Amino acid sequence: MLIRDSSERPRGTLLKRFPVPRSQGLSPGSRVRAGREWPAPANARRLRTLQVYRYDPEGDEGPRLDTYRVDAEACGPMLLDALIHIKNTVDPTLTFRRSCREGVCGSCAMNIDGTNWLACTRALTETDEPVQVYPLNNLPIIKDLVGDQRHAFAQYELIRPWLRADTPAPDAHERLQSPEERARLDGAYECILCFCCTSGCPSHWWNGDRFLGPAVLLQAYRWLADSRDEATGERLDELEDPFRLYRCHTILNCTRTCPKGLNPGWAIAEIKRMLLERNL
Ligand code: SF4
Ligand code: SF4
Ligand code: FES
């Protein structure tokens, strides 16, 4: 089940603070303490409360959860609008990434009410009260809601995500595909590399140094499925590894949390099928 709305979170099985409650098993210095309470604006018509993770690794203090109150009538309808409103009018030190504001750049991925999603495509009306906002799980924090994605992008680079073909491109036109060949890319080319899936994948938490994770494996499948690419065997050789691919245990957290509605778990299973078929 894809979790599009905070109310759709399966409360019996998924913790509010995913993957672990914010103070469980952590050293005292890492525990998230209650932070600053910002006052509600005067004459607010529709008050919403946001509890937002704050942490500056260069400072002397551990992480904290600040509480902001915003008038939802004074900002746009999305959670990202509320965060921008806070940054512009309440607290300019709040740090988060954003660019397109319409779900195509992947910058504003964060953990909202316990599941990963894009802040620009999660309406305030689809969040809990108070809404809890944390950075994506399992990334070193640069500041507040900004996680360090260098490792994720290094893994992406590892699969060499570009067309590999020895046949020269035609002079008169692009490398052509039939409609059927083009359709095989559906469900893969739409990935915006937000890494909601990879940061929600338990196998990547435990073996992220060697397991490529769902986002990168979906991209690997995108090139395996491309009729114009001529390096299928080479790409499969590179993936046939107990850790890079086979650490996926089909838990499907990735598929439940993809804000583009993609199915990395299926793509990973397709890669395993291709490897099995060529080894028969
Ligand atoms: S299906 Fe595989 S890649 Fe997706 S969350 Fe589960 S283990 Fe991770
Ligand atoms: S598969 Fe979905 S969740 Fe994963 S990086 Fe791509 S768009 Fe984001
Ligand atoms: S700001 Fe680009 S996806 Fe949200």
Automatic annotation (TrEMBL):
InterPro entries: 2Fe-2S_ferredoxin-like_sf (IPR036010), 2Fe-2S_ferredoxin-type (IPR001041), 2Fe2S_fd_BS (IPR006058), 4Fe4S_Fe-S-bd (IPR017896), 4Fe4S_Fe_S_CS (IPR017900), Beta-grasp_dom_sf (IPR012675), Helical_ferredxn (IPR009051), SDH/FRD_Iron-Sulfur (IPR050573). Pathway: Carbohydrate metabolism; tricarboxylic acid cycle; fumarate from succinate (bacterial route): step 1/1. Belongs to the succinate dehydrogenase/fumarate reductase iron-sulfur protein family. Binds 1 [2Fe-2S] cluster. It catalyses: a quinone + succinate = fumarate + a quinol. This is Succinate dehydrogenase iron-sulfur subunit. Signal peptide: none annotated. One of its GO terms (biological process) is respiratory electron transport chain. GO terms for molecular function: 2 iron, 2 sulfur cluster binding; 3 iron, 4 sulfur cluster binding; 4 iron, 4 sulfur cluster binding; electron transfer activity; metal ion binding; succinate dehydrogenase (quinone) activity.
